Amino acid sequence: MDLRLRSRRGSLDGVEAITAEAEGFAAGAGVPKIVARRLGLVVEELVTNAVSYGSEGVRDVAVEVTLTLDGDRIGVRISDDAPAFDPFAQAPKELGRTIETREVGGLGLVLVQALAEGIRYRRARGRNVVELDVRIDGVVAQTEGNTQE
User: Fold this and answer.
1) Domain extent for 101
2) Domain of 33: which CATH number?
3) CA-to-CA distance for 61 and 97, rounded, in angstroms?
4) Can you say how many angstroms the Cα of residue 28 is from the centroid of all Cα atoms in its chain?
5) How far apart are CA 44 and CA 61, in angstroms?
6) CA 20 to 30 Å from 34, out of 14, 19, 24, 40?
7) Is the pLDDT of residue 140 over 60?
8) Which residues of 116-137 are buried (b: 16+ CB within 10 A; e: fewer)?
């Protein structure tokens, strides 16, 4: 499934729709609801970052999201035409600090790293490209008070 968003000067209009489409793709593939939600969170965070930081508030950003079902995982490829930036090259955020003493930002990438695996960044043909996988298997589903593997 290919999804596209053209953001006008950092506007987040359309991010919610892309997130819903990503979750719909997972649901349509018959994966557990928790996996669809994880996929949605990953897509939302990475697309939001591409638009918010890539636009620098003054330029349009074109974002493309490609989702593929591959056995026990959903492959995610997110690319944008913003200036070169590897969001995962930054030092990991320190999670042990209180909200009063920690810097604003960065927790979304911590969330992405917790929900996905095989995260890779590259710059190709003038685009930032992030690829990762969201696992389907090994998820415990809650149904009517019972847990199932």
Assistant:
1) 2-148
2) 3.30.565.10
3) 34
4) 19
5) 15
6) 14
7) no
8) beebeeeeeeebbebbbbbbbe
